[in-house]
Amino acid sequence: MKNMASLLKRNAGQIVNYFINKETNAKAEALNRNLQRFINMNYGTRNVDFFLYRIKIHFA
Fold it and tell me: How many domains does the chain have?
């Protein structure tokens, strides 16, 4: 019970923001997940400029 109370106290701002603005950080989390997946698929790429170009094209 104490853990739940401390969790609610720590995240009170985000919880209230959801009910006021109906917004979450789900879009940012999804973008981060997709970016991490893309990076993992292309691990070992030697040409950094081309890799960044591919990221820009993929997520544009």
Answer: 1
